[in-house]
Amino acid sequence: MKLSTKLDANITNIDIELLGKPINAIKDELHDILFKATLDITHTLRTWLKEPAIKILFSGMTIQVSDKKEYSLKSAVLRHTDGGLLRTHMPSALLMRLSDCFYSADVVRKPSDDSTQEDPLTSSDLRLQHRIAKLIASYIAPEDMWYQIDAITGRDISLRAEFTISLKDFSGVLCLDLDSSLVQTLIDELDLSPSKALKEKFAKALVDTPVKLNTVLCRKTLSLDEVLKLRPNDIINIDLLSSMPVSIGKERLFNGHIAEQNGQLVLILKD
Predict the structure, then answer these.
(1) Average pLDDT by consecutive 10-residue portion of the chain (271 residues)?
(2) Does the first or last residue of the chain, that is N or C, have fewer Cβ atoms within 10 Å of its Cβ?
(3) What integer pLDDT is reported at residue 180 of this predicted model?
(4) How many angstroms from the chain centroid is the CA of residue 130?
(5) DSSP letters of 24-61?
(6) Domain extent listing, the chain
(7) Integer CA distances (angstroms), 111 to 117, 118, 155, in order
(8) What is the third-level CATH fold of 210-268?
């Protein structure tokens, strides 16, 4: 069998800073925050776009790898003053439709029929995307803690929040990606790290938990006929095993053997 040494392009190194962190706790916390904010965000966009028919549905949050191609200049990137990036992006066709409403365009642009080409966006389109990004970010942290930076390319393990935006007969998905640094910043700010007192209680509980150690000293094979003849007080000849498995439950830990020490039998553990 030939082993390939070529790295798979789809394999991404996980940021070890996230290992052991309460990322699921911050994911659930942000889910609640953004879910509750959806109604306010919808109301604000209706006011900005002068379009009462716009609807926004919060689709939820996932842990995923952000793709490099999504971090083009078409993303609105905000940096948190305490560290971390928030990237906001949406399909060009969705941004164009929102922008045409926002600027009261005389002619509504239509997306290209060629799926291989991106629709051209104007600086006005990108300014609106940044404004929407700042709006949603203000529910995650105060508005004065965010500032705009140029788009950064790369791949990163992140939390992604998704909103489905519907406008009459058109809909699309707006995505927010929180990189690992921002996740850690929010964990610290929301005080979601396990407390020292809780860690100490957990460690003490582990030390005080009784554990039953099992070992098999001997085995004896009998025929069914011999077993049926057994009676109380019968004496059976046995041979001690030379190597005895020692386990906790079904988990095997060591091997051992019996020896005599100070007039009594003892079990000596070995690898």
Answers:
(1) 46 48 79 95 95 94 68 78 92 92 85 66 93 96 91 69 92 92 86 60 73 82 89 85 82 83 84 73
(2) N
(3) 84
(4) 26
(5) HHHHHHHHHHHHHHHHHHHHHHHHHHT-TT-EEEEEEE
(6) 16-110+118-197, 210-268
(7) 10, 9, 28
(8) Surface presentation of antigens (SPOA) (2.30.330)
